[in-house]
Write a structure and sequence with these properties.
Shape: globular
Low-confidence stretches: none
Oligomer: single chain
Number of strands: 7
CATH class: Alpha Beta
InterPro entries: RpiR-like_SIS, SIS_dom, SIS_dom_sf, SIS_GmhA/DiaA_subfam
Protein name: SIS domain-containing protein
Structural class: alpha/beta
Helix content: 40-55%
Organism: Cohnella silvisoli
Domain SIS: 30-217
Length: 242
């Protein structure tokens, strides 16, 4: 446990020191989209989908955030199935169509390896639609790895902005000599910091620009339900008006 704490603390510090510039870029890109009444889409497969849920409809969350949650690509229907599905080519175009991802939006793609077909094709397809793509990935894993996709590209080579989670290859950070294996993945805890730090900065940018962001409250505080219901109603009215 102590080793894991030290590993996470060290990676968080490295991430904070080396990735600030790109987190700031992502925040400004997102702020510009919000001010243009565009959407911030978050997408990940496997365990990475948790970071798409992390920022959605929660205390301190922005109304403009929309996760792309596809059950077959998550873990709900089995880990081996989701692993096979995220390697399936030509799947991403369906998701981009179904979620109506369009020019001016921003798509945040979370993929620790950055190697599998669906995240890569989400990035390619989104950019073809005029969407800015922000990748959250593990360059220590991805950069030396062989490409898996027919394009010969990895996620970080396609995205407009790349944020490195500074993890180890394979993600697990604590090596156990007794069994010759490692435990303690870091991509989720570090990734949660990255996406929330980016949103905090995004909101600060909106306020500095004189724009009032719409922020959800916790549903477990007294005024939370009423506040959030009004936001949802206003969002529905905007969609009908648009």
């Amino acid at each position: 446990m102590n080793k894991y704490y030290e590993k996470v603390k060290g990676i968080l510090e490295q991430c904070f020191q080396t990735q600030q510039k790109d987190i700031l870029k992502a925040a400004e890109c997102g702020a510009q989209a919000v001010m243009a009444n565009k959407q911030l889409f978050f997408f990940g497969t496997g365990h990475s989908h948790m970071l798409a849920e992390e920022v959605y409809y929660r205390a301190g969350g922005l109304k403009n955030i929309k996760p792309i949650l596809e059950s077959a690509l998550m873990l709900h229907e089995g880990g081996t199935k989701s692993t096979r599905m995220e390697r399936l080519e030509d799947y991403a175009a369906i998701l981009l169509d179904e979620h109506k991802v369009e020019a001016g939006d921003v798509l945040f793609i979370i993929s620790n390896s950055g190697l599998n077909a669906v995240p890569i094709e989400m990035a390619i397809g989104a950019k073809a639609r005029g969407v800015k793509v922000v990748a959250l990935t593990n360059l220590n894993h991805s950069a030396p790895a062989k490409p898996r996709h027919r394009s010969g590209k990895k996620l970080y080579e396609i995205a407009d902005i790349v944020i490195d989670n500074c993890g180890l290859p394979g993600d697990a950070a604590v090596h156990l000599d007794a069994i010759g294996l490692s435990v303690g993945p870091t991509s989720t805890v570090v990734g949660a910091f990255i996406v929330n730090a980016m949103i905090v900065q995004l909101v600060e940018n909106l306020i500095a620009a004189g724009f009032v962001p719409q922020i959800y409250l916790s549903a477990n505080v007294e005024e939370g339900d009423e506040h959030n219901a009004k936001m949802i109603e206003s969002a529905a009215a905007e969609r009908q008006g648009g």
